[in-house]
Amino acid sequence: MQIIGHRGAKGLAPENTIESLQIAIEHQVDMIEIDIRLHNGSVVLSHDETFPAKTYTLLEEALRVINGRVPLNIEIKEARVIKHLPELLKNYKGDVLYSSLKFQMLAALRKLLPDCNVAILETWSGVRAVAEAELLYTKRIHIKQSWLWASFVRSLKHRGYEIFAYTVNSKKRAAELEEWGVDGIFTDYPDRFTK
Predict the structure, then answer these.
(1) CA distance 27 to 46
(2) How far apart are CA 63 and CA 88, in angstroms?
(3) How far apart are CA 147 and CA 113, in angstroms?
(4) How far is residue 105's CA from residue 111's CA, in Å, rounded to a whole number?
(5) Residue 146 to residues 23, 127, 165: CA-CA distances in angstroms?
């Protein structure tokens, strides 16, 4: 089962910071997830809305730190960042996967970057997740772990979908999800799942 560092390593350092990314890499995660927004004209790492006076980590700084060492899941939090992504990532050599809770944002991204990899990000509805995945020609679904149950996971796996659960901080819950066939988990504490 893959271990994905949630906002870097949110439970071990301030989320969406260089420190958080470095700790996730030290714990040998299989992927790092970050959130992006626009702040004072720059694409920055932030889950929540930004404040004018606050300093944030720039996406380009994060890309330099990660430097292709581990795949990156970029969650798009607002549509206005999308137009900046082709330029910011044009020379990036690592694997990048995009996700968003808003289907329209992923559709807009696909128009701009037709070959980009996307994952459907869903809070609770498996039906909606599958419908959106089919429209975007992806087999990857990221879904809130509390809405998963064994038969649902197995039915999606049978149909060829990859299922990733967020946010899982319990080793017991992770083991249960793995038994059902979940492909990976997002966690705030990658140290608990060090290989």
Answers:
(1) 22
(2) 9
(3) 31
(4) 10
(5) 26, 16, 9
List the domain boundaries for the chain. Answer: 2-193
Nearest Cα neighbor of 34 from 124, 95, 98 is 98
pLDDT tens digits for range 31-78? 999 999 999 999 999 999 999 999 999 999 999 999 999 999 999 999
Does domain 2-193 fall under CATH 3.20.20.190? My reply is yes
Provide the residue type at 168 as one letter. Answer: V
Q: Is the Cβ–Cβ distance between 72 and 66 less than 8 Å?
A: yes
**SS (HEC) of 16-55:** CCHHHHHHHHHCCCCEEEEEEEEECCEEEECCCCCCCCCC
Contacts 24+ apart (CB under 8 A), 112-116: 112/82, 112/83, 112/85, 112/86, 113/85, 113/86
Rounded Cα distance, 93 and 75, in Å: 18
Q: What angle do CA 172, 173, 176 make, to 5 degrees?
A: 90
Residue tagged 């017991």 (tokens): 172
pLDDT, residue 12, reads 98
Say how far apart CA 10 and CA 19 lie, in whole Å: 10
Instruction: Please write the tens of the pLDDT for every residue from 168-195.
Output: 999 999 999 999 999 999 999 999 997 6
